[in-house]
Fold this protein.
Amino acid sequence: MSDTDLGHAVEEARARPVVERRHPWRTIAAVVILLLVVWGADVILRNPSFEWNVVGDYLFHPAVMQGLWTTIWLTVVVTLMSIVFGVIVGAIRLSQNIVLKTVAWVYIWVFRSTPLLVQLLFWFNIGYLFPSIGIGLPWGPMLWEMPARDLIAPITAALLGLTLQTTSYTAEIIRGGIAAVPTGQLEAAEVLGISPMKRFLRIIIPQSMRSIIPSLGNQVIDTLKATSMISVMAVPDLLYSVQLIYNRSYKVVPMLMVATLWYIFITSVMTVLQARIEAHYARGTRRRKEKRVKLAVAAPAATPPVQALAEEAKG
């Protein structure tokens, strides 16, 4: 086949319409699942036991709004603190200092091995172990001292428990993201004489964000739902607020649906924000993929001239 015939064959192949393969079982499965979803929604909406009128009456109740605000600000504060401490602990985990590395590993091991509810109850009852907490010299006099019950209130115990437990997971997420950065980037920065701190903040962290964001976003959503556990310490979060209402009105299921709807709403907002942040940090990868696709599409058109030059070179 000559180069001209090969070029015509390529052009004809490009002009032919692409017929996609049919997948009838996929269509059948989608229809069945859709019918099940519609049936489930109909059962829930038409079930009188849910008392949707009560749900509507209490959805924006002042007590529920106050509990929702406590849940939101607690999630934000715990997330910010866990990110700051997680970066520090994650960096220490990658340190060459065996002492620091071991201490960081033990911290992560302990707090990831202990259930969150146990940690919350431990901090809530810290006054049993240490009646007073203060600042002083080791094995020496105390310079400042305060009763533990006055220093660690229920909301403080919630912050400590949630932050320490979330930091252990965040540190591992950040460590994994840092480890995913190509070593060539670090070697190039070291050759250029960039300081270790600037290397970490300007090169390692920005490149590791694409690997960190998906897992970190899931961790934030888990933190939001984990705040419901602080209701055992009588902290007026969203769940505890609806519990107080249904203890008086005996409307257990409707009030639980109120809390469920708010948790679903906040989680949905976080999911949208996470998707936008992921798209922001994936821009470079997306551009590289589009460039590879363009090159692949343009490759057949360039084949005949290249083949002709190769044949001329052989001749």
User: Anything to note?
Assistant: The chain has 14 helices and two strands. The first helix runs from residue 3 to 15. Confidence is low (pLDDT under 50) at residues 296-310.
